[in-house]
């Protein structure tokens, strides 16, 4: 049985805890957080400090990027210590000699229902033995387990920001535009679903359409006239990027 010490009380940490408590091969033996009491009812012992007298195989720091180094330096252990951050190097876990990364590529919210088996988990470690241990742990959760370097993980995270955060922001703007003229955003749902489905099935760039690609200045000008200054600036920047991509 693999014994886990879980650091953090945020969304990712609580999702980890719920998942780990459902596997016989995993035992979460201590949960460490700064809050006085644990944020949810569970059977895992909760502490404000790492407990050296409780044997642990892996310490998972599911905490904010800015606190990883501070927390890593606050305790000593011979166990493998890993963080879950996309944009942080494995080196941030110094001075721990056994260190690694256990990064699940997904957004996590409080009341979200997860299908862990479909969530990619990206792994990195300083030794083959520890990488094998993380692989064993990851495969308890997911069918999508990948070995990813610090450099690759940073690029992957940047790609995820474009695919998730930026797309969500653009959808929010489209909702605002339709709302301003009393139209239901559901009118756009079929084209949104078709675009996402097609882009996931093949090369998204090959399916690019629209006034920016064909350099339809008249249509673009009409659009810009009805947009706010911020929306217009974003519209121009995206249109320029699309045009340059397809007219090299």
Structural description of this entry:
The protein is 41% helix and 15% strand. With 248 residues, the chain is an alpha/beta fold. It has two domains: 2-148, NAD(P)-binding Rossmann-like Domain (Rossmann fold, 3-Layer(aba) Sandwich), CATH 3.40.50.720; 158-246, N-(1-d-carboxylethyl)-l-norvaline Dehydrogenase, domain 2. It is elongated.
Total of DSSP H or I helical runs spanning 4+ residues: 7
Low-confidence stretches: none
CATH C-level category of the largest domain = Alpha Beta
Number of individual domains: 2
Arithmetic mean pLDDT: 94
Structural class by secondary-structure content: alpha/beta
List the secondary-structure elements in sequence, H or E. Answer: EHEEEHEEEHEHHHH
Task: Give the structure's gist in a few sentences.
By secondary structure, the chain is an alpha/beta fold.
Using brief descriptors, characterize the structure shown:
248 residues, alpha/beta, Rossmann fold, N-(1-d-carboxylethyl)-l-norvaline Dehydrogenase, domain 2, 2 domains, eight-stranded mixed beta sheet, 8 strands, 41% helix, elongated
Question: What is the strand and helix layout of this fold?
Answer:
Layout: E1 2-7, H1 11-20, E2 26-32, E3 46-47, E4 58-61, H2 68-72, E5 80-83, E6 99-104, E7 121-125, H3 128-141, E8 145-147, H4 150-180, H5 189-201, H6 217-226, H7 229-246
């Amino acid at each position: 049985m693999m014994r886990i010490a879980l650091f953090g009380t945020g969304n990712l940490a609580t999702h980890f805890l719920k998942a780990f408590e459902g596997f016989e091969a995993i035992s979460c033996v201590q949960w460490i957080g700064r809050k006085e009491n644990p944020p949810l009812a569970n059977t895992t012992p909760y502490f404000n400090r790492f407990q050296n007298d409780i044997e642990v195989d892996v310490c998972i720091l599911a905490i904010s990027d800015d606190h990883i180094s501070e927390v890593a330096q606050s305790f000593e252990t011979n166990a493998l210590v890993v963080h879950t951050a996309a944009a942080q190097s494995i080196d941030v876990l110094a001075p721990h000699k056994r260190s690694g990364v256990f990064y699940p590529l997904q957004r996590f919210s409080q009341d979200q229902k997860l299908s862990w088996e479909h969530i990619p988990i990206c792994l990195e470690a300083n030794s083959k033995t520890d990488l094998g241990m993380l692989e064993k742990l990851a495969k308890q959760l997911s069918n999508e387990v990948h070995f990813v370097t610090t450099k690759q993980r940073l690029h992957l995270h940047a790609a995820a920001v474009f695919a998730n955060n930026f797309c969500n922001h653009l959808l929010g703007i489209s909702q605002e535009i339709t709302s301003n003229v009393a139209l239901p955003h559901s009118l756009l749902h079929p084209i949104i679903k078709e675009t996402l489905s097609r882009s996931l099935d093949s090369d998204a760039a090959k399916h690019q359409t629209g006034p920016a690609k064909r350099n339809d200045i008249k249509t673009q000008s009409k659009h810009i006239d009805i947009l706010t200054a911020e929306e217009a600036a974003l519209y121009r920047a995206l249109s320029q990027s699309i045009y340059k991509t397809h007219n090299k």
